[in-house]
């Protein structure tokens, strides 16, 4: 096998491979000899089939197997010999001329093909001990725990039918039909619907017009859908709702006590508070973690400025762009509605894709050098958590992931990345800062749009806070260099 480098420009490589016809012939004869003692052909005793007859019957198919074997094994061996890692699956090209192909399969011509790929750039791991970040911490006060407990208690509140007019806080049970331009619209009809006045569950203005109604009343309510309403065909439209009130009920008072907790299936109100406190701490802790991670990624992004493999960047950009355009289409909006242009958005997301790929490679290299591993137990736990999202299809989803290494890699990637982040956090300076909930939850547009994490999250388009949402980098990002 003759291997010749024909292109070495930046990260791009092209290799020309020539397997002489005599080598192809030798490989074919080896296969034919192996098959000679196994095949059963009428008129010949086992092992006595003439080689020429065997070649006539199976020569082309076995030579095709030789070709496939060379292609499957040579790429990895060539890269290994060169000490290179391909950023993506190398592109293999061979002759498309039928006559040339026939000669190769007949053992009458050299087998020539080329391999084109981009290499993972050499990444020199840098000292991170000089990185300093601030960890914003919000301590959940008892008052907020009680406030959340009261919200939960609302779900267990009881109502008693009354004869009088509906007031704020009362529950109105009704049938209604919504219309736009006199025509009923999809999703605008319901029967036996319950609405607590003042809860803000319906379109602005709807609940206000129900104040004063009584059981048995009929009423036509006039509203206008918000301009940002999720159903684009209704956004900004004037509508009427023909309402028939079937019941008005008064809310019974609620009190945080053990009886309430027992109605919720818990042994005491203190246990209820413990659960709520844990949930709130996890919620705010997750935000803290994301902000810490973004600061770390920003520092790494500033420290590593190597060229990212173009094919990886293109693949990542395409993933982002597909989600952005899909979200715009579903919202019935254009780039102009988001105070940007398609050209500017493309440029912004291209920069984001480059950042993600670069950081993915950096994290993979750091994790590899640090010996970060994802255990079988962690993978099993992640798979079970994922499968639980598909009730009724658990076994089907489980089998799919167990049989598809690529799909399993998508589950492994965010675990691996978080472990690498933990490794790095143990090496840098982290200063805790007590903040208010408002400070912790403040929406930092730069953080949202610049992050390059492997774990899926929602992000926003550039230039405007009400921009379309899109998925963050695919889980493969952190795996690219492995």
Structure description:
- The chain is an alpha+beta fold and 482 residues long.
- It folds into 3 domains: 2-118, Alpha-Beta Plaits (2-Layer Sandwich); 158-253, Chitinase A, domain 3 (Roll), CATH 3.10.50; 269-479, Trigger factor, domain 2.
- Helices cover 45% and strands 20% of the residues.
- It contains 13 helices and 13 strands.
- It has helices at 21-36, 51-82, 98-105, 142-155, 258-263, 269-303, 310-331, 342-370, 376-387, 394-403, 405-425, 437-441, 445-450, and strands at residues 2-9, 12-19, 91-94, 111-118, 132-137, 159-161, 171-180, 183-196, 218-224, 238-251, 429-434, 458-460, 469-471.
- Strands 6, 7, 8, 9 and 10 form a 5-stranded antiparallel beta sheet that branches. It has a 4-stranded antiparallel beta sheet with strand order 1-2-4-3.
- The model is unreliable at 445-482 (pLDDT under 50).
Outline:
The protein has 482 residues and is of the alpha+beta class. It has three domains: 2-118, Trigger factor ribosome-binding domain (Alpha-Beta Plaits); 158-253, Chitinase A, domain 3; 269-479, Trigger factor, C-terminal domain (Trigger factor, domain 2), CATH 1.10.3120.10. Helices cover 45% and strands 20% of the residues.
């Amino acid at each position: 096998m003759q291997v010749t480098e024909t292109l070495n420009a930046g990260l791009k490589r092209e290799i020309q491979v020539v397997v002489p016809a005599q080598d192809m012939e030798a490989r074919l004869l080896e296969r034919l000899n192996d098959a000679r003692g196994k095949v059963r052909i009428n008129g010949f005793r086992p092992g006595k089939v003439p080689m020429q007859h065997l070649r006539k019957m199976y020569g082309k198919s076995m030579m095709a197997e030789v070709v496939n074997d060379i292609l499957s094994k040579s790429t990895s061996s060539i890269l290994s010999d060169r000490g290179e890692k391909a950023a993506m699956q190398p592109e293999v090209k061979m002759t498309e001329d039928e006559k040339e192909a026939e000669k190769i399969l007949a053992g009458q011509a050299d087998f020539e093909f080329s391999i084109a790929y981009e290499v993972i750039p050499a990444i020199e791991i840098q000292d991170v001990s000089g990185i300093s970040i601030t960890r914003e911490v919000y301590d959940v006060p008892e008052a907020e725990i009680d406030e959340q407990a009261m919200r939960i208690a609302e779900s267990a509140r009881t109502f008693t039918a009354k004869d009088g007019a509906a007031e704020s806080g009362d529950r109105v049970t009704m049938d209604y039909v919504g219309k736009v331009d006199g025509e009923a619209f999809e999703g605008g009809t319901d029967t036996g619907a319950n609405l607590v006045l003042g809860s803000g569950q319906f379109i602005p203005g709807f609940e206000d017009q129900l104040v004063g109604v009584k059981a048995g009343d009929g009423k036509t309510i006039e509203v206008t859908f918000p301009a940002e309403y999720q159903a684009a065909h209704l956004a900004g439209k004037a509508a009427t709702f023909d309402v028939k009130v079937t019941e008005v009920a008064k809310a019974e008072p609620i009190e945080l006590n053990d009886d309430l907790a027992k109605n919720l299936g818990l042994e005491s109100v203190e246990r209820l508070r413990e659960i709520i406190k844990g949930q709130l701490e996890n919620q705010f802790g997750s935000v803290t973690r994301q902000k810490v991670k973004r600061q770390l990624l920003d520092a790494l992004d500033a420290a590593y400025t190597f060229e990212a493999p173009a094919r990886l960047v293109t693949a990542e950009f395409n993933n982002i762009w597909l989600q952005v355009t899909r979200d715009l289409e579903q919202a019935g909006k254009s780039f102009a509605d988001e105070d940007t242009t398609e050209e500017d958005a493309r440029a912004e997301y291209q920069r984001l894709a480059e950042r993600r790929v670069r950081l993915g490679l950096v994290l993979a290299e750091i994790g590899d050098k640090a010996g970060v591993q994802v255990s079988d137990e962690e993978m099993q736990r992640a798979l079970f958590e994922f499968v639980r999202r598909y009730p009724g299809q658990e076994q089907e989803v489980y089998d799919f992931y167990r049989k598809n290494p690529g799909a399993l890699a998508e589950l492994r990637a965010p675990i691996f990345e978080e472990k690498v982040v933990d490794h790095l956090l143990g090496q840098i300076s982290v200063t805790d800062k007590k903040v208010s909930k408002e400070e912790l939850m403040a929406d930092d547009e730069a953080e949202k749009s610049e992050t390059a994490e492997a774990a899926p999250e929602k992000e926003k388009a550039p230039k405007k806070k009400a921009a379309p949402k899109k998925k963050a980098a695919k889980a493969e990002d952190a795996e690219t260099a492995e």
